[in-house]
């Protein structure tokens, strides 16, 4: 039986006159087949969808895949199979490596389309419940983390990972950013073997049942840090209030960016307001100045304004929101947290 | 000052008549510039090499990059810059996403080349010393891990990661495979929340100063498991003895594969014999049946034969070897280990 996700993709293919759609991205293959490759694999959506998987993944595919699978032998065989089925116009993923595209370009008319990403944008209630559970695990673990133990940044970030696993997470959804002092001005700082300084910025998440969570909290101390915290909090709160289906993603980014600009810190908000979250930690669409995608019900997107003073400190506050008639924050961890150092 | 690595690449470019070489792979950019991007970046090797990095990485690039960098604005600006410098033939990485290639294809004559991977194949003594240190950290941590603590697979694999960090590792070089019982027949098994069964298979590594280590040990118990262990050990030992510069990579794979075939288990050795290791855990060339690359001094490659009985058990033994006049195993952890469960 072919799932409704695959049927939707087949309809788009028919409309655009593609007879085959080649996928190699692990998350896309997992999304469509419940088989998450551990080595390379090629999934071809066509009248009868099929996965070509590596010899060493055959047992794994046999345990998990809802799509028929065969062992990949070589590209000639795969290409011959597709030609024999009458495939002439072949769709590929935008992320497909040039090298792989090159293997197919002589035999097919190729163009890239993001049908799977389009499907993945709108989360089912089951997907949202996985993201909600991942968020609960991550937030509960954060609250149990003992910042006053004397452990350094790196040890604390690792302990947070242990707590999340203990509560049922598969793993972190990305390398935990637990940073402090002047390193907090680097949006993607790496935890170091050094004692906590002020302020403390933690950007972390868990994976539950394949789905990611994403949050950031900054614990501030000085008057100056509080002042910046409150601006970032205003940008966070006001942009979330505005979110609703039908608006463009870039309009939400603008709400937060305009608030930060008004206070004179526009140049220091050095990234987009947010990104979608699901099986991957970064999905589309984005709350970014350039993303004109229309917001729809069922999207799950982060809101994470930040202000960064190079070599001094940074403040970022991030929640993940589920979009229905309006935006609902997933999880219930307060933005303002106090930790006595 | 332009490094000798970049000069070597510029020479290859000149020979092949490329005026520019576009790189987006993080490890490649790190290899050439010492700046490891935390967000997207484009490095263009040309007469004056330059990196276009994301706004949020500008501070990181300023701290680390040995190559000039500017802030990426958009693709039109980047393309205009390259055209103004007279670039007509543009080389790209084989791994470059189709979507990125598409942005450049109208304005340049493009082909993919693996100049950087070619450079990265031959490790300097400094790179080998980093891999050696990573291996020492990983092996010392393994010996300290208490398999008899009653902790389950997942908790033990996490504890191994903690020990490696404590000894100076940046992180694991890949998700630790600590598996046992029938799951050991999956080459890339995922540690589970279950008590250890027999046999135990651990495939793990550390990152030190950016460089990866990679080892596998299988702890066997039954007579049958020992029998298979000894076949895998013979394939491991004999193939390492044969390695020397001038031979083809596939010839080494064949030595191990022939031994396993002789014992009647050829169909159960379901992956290649080995892969190169460096800044990435999987580099080229590979000890695989299809890789005709010539072995050279300075290569660092794994040797990891395995035999897998579906739903029963698997045995894999892996060392990483440094190639000089012959192959020298990095590290000194014995293949045969005893753990009383």
Task: Indicate the topology.
Two copies of one chain form a homodimer.
Chain A: H1 4-15, E1 20-23, H2 26-33, E2 41-45, E3 50-53, H3 58-64, E4 68-71, H4 75-84, E5 89-92, H5 98-104, E6 109-112, H6 115-121, H7 125-144, H8 153-166, E7 171-172, E8 177-180, E9 200-204, E10 206-208, E11 211-212, E12 215-219, H9 223-242, H10 249-262, E13 274-276, E14 283-287, E15 300-303, E16 306-309, E17 313-316, E18 319-323, E19 327-329
Helix pairs in contact in A: 7-8, 9-10
Care to describe what's here?
Two copies of one chain form a homodimer. The first copy, chain A, is of the alpha+beta class. In chain A, 35% of the residues lie in helices and 22% in strands. The first copy, chain A, contains ten helices and 19 strands. Chain A has a six-stranded mixed sheet with strand order 4-3-2-1-5-6. A three-stranded antiparallel sheet of chain A has the order 7-10-11. In chain A, strands 8-9-12 form a three-stranded antiparallel sheet, covered by helices on one side. In chain A, β10 and β11 form a beta hairpin. In chain A, α9 packs antiparallel against α10.
Total beta strands of chain A = 19
Oligomer: homodimer
Give the averaged pLDDT of chain A, no decimals. 97
Gap between N and C termini of chain A, in Å?
A: 58 Å
Shape of chain A: globular
The low-confidence parts of chain A are none
Q: Based on helices, strands and strand pairing, what is the structural class of chain A?
A: alpha+beta
Give a short account of the largest sheet of chain A.
6 strands, mixed
